[in-house]
Amino acid sequence: MTPPASAADPAADPAADKSSGAQRLPGRAVVGDGRAVKAADRAHVFHSWSAQGLIDPLAVAGAEGSYFWDYDGNRYLDFSSQLVNTNIGHQHPKVVAAIQEQAAKLCTIAPGFAVDVRSEAARLIAERTPGDLDKIFFTNGGAEAVENAVRMARLHTGRPKVLSAYRSYHGATAAAINLTGDPRRWPSDTASAGVVHFWGPFLYRSPFHAESEAQECERALAHLEQTLAFEGPQTVAAIILETIPGTAGIMVPPPGYLAGVREICDRHGIVFILDEVMAGFGRTGHWFAADHFGVTPDLLTFAKGVNSGYVPLGGVAISAEIAATFETRPYPGGLTYSGHPLACASAVATINAMADERIVENAAEIGETVIGPALREIAGRHPSVGEVRGLGAFWALELVKDKETREPLVPYNASGAANTPMAEFAAACKRGGLWPFVNMNRTHVVPACTVTAAEAKEGLAVLDEALTTADAHTTA
Prior knowledge:
Layout: E1 23-24, H1 34-44, E2 60-64, E3 67-70, E4 74-78, H2 81-84, H3 93-105, H4 116-128, E5 135-139, H5 142-157, E6 161-165, H6 174-179, E7 195-198, H7 213-231, E8 236-242, H8 257-268, E9 271-275, E10 299-302, E11 314-318, H9 320-325, H10 341-356, H11 359-381, E12 385-391, E13 394-399, H12 420-431, E14 434-435, E15 437-439, E16 442-445, H13 453-471
Parallel strand pairs: 4-14, 6-7, 6-8, 8-9, 9-10
Antiparallel strand pairs: 1-4, 2-3, 3-4, 5-11, 10-11, 12-13, 13-16, 15-16
C-alpha cells in the first residue's frame, strides 16, 4: 500500500537523494535499506544515456497509482510516467494479477506456437488500431518495433531510403537511432544507413517563417515534397513520423499535415509509418493519436502504454497490403521473446482495464478541463513559459529566456553549467514532491492517464512554484 501523504517537510534528509527533499511520509517504516540498494547499483549497474560516475540514482522502494517513494519515506507524484509509459499507473491490481495468473499457467513459449493470450492481445490491439491494421507483429519494445517496421517497408517496396524528422526520437537500436533526430543520434550516426532527415511542422519555432498553422502546414508539406524530389522518390521506402512527437517536444501537428503526408506517400508508392510508441494507448485522449487526425498509416509502431511497461512489449500493426507481401514469402525477422506470454497477459489486462475504467476518456477529460487550462494560466504568470501545447495527458511547456525573442532557457543540447536553469527547475520540482520530465529547455506534463483531478492539481501547484526558479534566469 502507498504510505500516507503529508505536507512537504523542509527538514527532509537530503542523504536519500542529493536532488530531492520530497514529501515526507512520517509514521510509516519502509522495509529495506536504500543505501545498500544504491551501493549495489553503483557497483554493478551500467545506466543508459549516462556518464556513469556523474549520476546519483534515487533508490525506489515502491510505487502505486500516480506515486512512487524511496526508502526514507519521500513520496513523489510521477509527472513523467517514468518514461511516459505507465499510462495505467503503477501497480494496477488487475494487471499484476494477470501476470501472476499467466506465470502459474505458462511462463514462456516460442513465438512459432499459437497461444491464447498472444492471440487475444493481438485481437484487442487490432480492434483499436485505425483502418485495416489488423496483423500484429510483437517485439520487446518500441525501438525493435521501429526496426521491424522499416525492414518491412524496405522489403515491401524494394527501396533503400527512409525519411524522418529532425525533431524526433525513434529508439536506440541500429536503424532506430539513425532515424532519430535528436542529439542522441550523433555518436552512432553512420551516415550510411539510408536515412534522410527533414523538418516537420512546429509553428512556435517555424523553420519556414510561417505566421499561422495553415502556412506552417502548407510550407512543411512543400518542404517534404522538395526533399523527396531531390532524393528521388523512387528510392524512398518509407516516411516515418511520430504522430505527435514525444521527447522532442509534444508538437501537435497542424490540421491537414498528416493527411498531406499520407497523400504524398500514396502518390509516390511510399510506405507511411506512424510511430505511436509514446503517443499511443490513451496518452492523447484517444486510443491512438492518429485518431485525432483521421489518418491511417501503412504501419504503426507501439509499445509503452500497451501494457504500461509492466513486462517489456512492443509491436507493429500491419496493413493488409503489406501483410500480403509476406503471405508466401518468409518475413526475415523475429525475436525469441516475440509475443511473450507474460507480456501479452499484461497487455490484455491493461487494455481491458482501460476500456472498463474509461481511462482513455479520463485522459481526454483531465487534459481538457484541468491540465490544459491550468498550464495556460501558469504561462500567464511566468515569464519563463513561452508556449503551452498538448492533448490529453501529453503536454509540454517551452521554457524561454525572453518571451519576445523566444530564446530557449538553455542552449540546444546544453549540459553542465550551461544547463543550470533547467537543473535548478528540476530540483525545485523534486523538493516539492513532484518528479518532472525535463528535456533540453522543456518540461513535459505527462502523468498517468489514470491521474485524478486532485492529483493533477497537486502536481500543477508544485510546477507553478518551481517555475519561479526558471523565471530568475529570464530577461524579464
